[in-house]
Amino acid sequence: DGGITQSPKYLFRKEGQNVTLSCEQNLNHDAMYWYRQDPGQGLRLIYYSQIVNDFQKGDIAEGYSVSREKKESFPLTVTSAQKNPTAFYLCASSKTGASGANVLTFGAGSRLTVL
Amino acid sequence: GDSVTQMEGPVTLSEEAFLTINCTYTATGYPSLFWYVQYPGEGLQLLLKATKADDKGSNKGFEATYRKETTSFHLEKGSVQVSDSAVYFCALDKAAGNKLTFGGGTRVLVKP
């Protein structure tokens, strides 16, 4: 079955360490996204990529980095510069197009806790 | 900029009660509107969508009508079940942006 796989599901990090969250999709979608979700809050866009080897900052990109070397993969690195990294991270993908009805498919999420 | 405002939760209901979750938006142009649902410990799933004014999206007994005159997209279900307990997110998308703007989410708890 097609879908998005995020790993790990749970991750613990010490302060000052970088960590990388994996996101893989087999939906042949062009666009991929990373969102952050904090308790009781909505989703905030970190980075997005509409094509291989290209990506754009979202609303809260500071302290994060991404790469898009393959269509299927969009890993997110949470760097030590991110001051409050404890959160639930959601990866999503979509077909790009001109219709505007951009339906996102989400992964199951990765919960990062800084000790 | 674009924004989506939802009623704050949690909303607590008894089984078979009527559910309404209000959603209003601010955007230029003609956005598409969505409701996504998040069950505990999971990612989001598309519940329904509407792409133009007066469209009604529907799925699993849920409905929402795109009202451009009131810039609203309220979610309704006539008879909720315990399995409807989840967090519901309203979102909008514009053709040029190709990325969604989400509301803050509304937690719904249905008790037997």
Explain what you see.
- The complex is a heterodimer of chains A (115) and B (112).
- Chain A is built from no helices and 11 strands.
- Chain A is an all-beta fold and 115 residues long.
- The model of chain A has no long low-confidence stretch (mean pLDDT 90).
- By secondary structure, chain B is mostly beta strands.
- Chain B contains no helices and 12 strands.
- Chain B is globular and about 45 Å long.
- The interface between A and B is medium-sized, with 29 and 24 residues.
In short:
With 115 residues, chain A is mainly β.
> What is the general shape of chain B?
globular
Q: Catalogue the unreliable spans of chain A.
A: none
Largest interface: A-B, 29 and 24 residues
Strand content of chain A is over 45%
The termini of chain B sit apart by 41 Å
**Derived structural class of chain A:** mainly beta
Can you summarize the main beta sheet of chain B?
Answer: 6 strands, mixed
Biggest sheet of chain A, open or closed, and with what strands and sense? 7 strands, mixed
- Kindly report how far apart the N and C termini of chain A lie: 36 Å
Radius of gyration of chain A: 14 Å
H/E series of chain A: EEEEEEEEEEE
* Mean pLDDT across residues of chain A: 90
Q: What is the number of E strands of chain A?
A: 11
Count of helix runs of chain B: 0
**Mean pLDDT value of chain B:** 92
| Count of individual helical segments of chain A | 0
The low-confidence runs of chain B, each spanning 5 or more residues with pLDDT under 50, are none
Annotation, overall tally of beta strands of chain B: 12
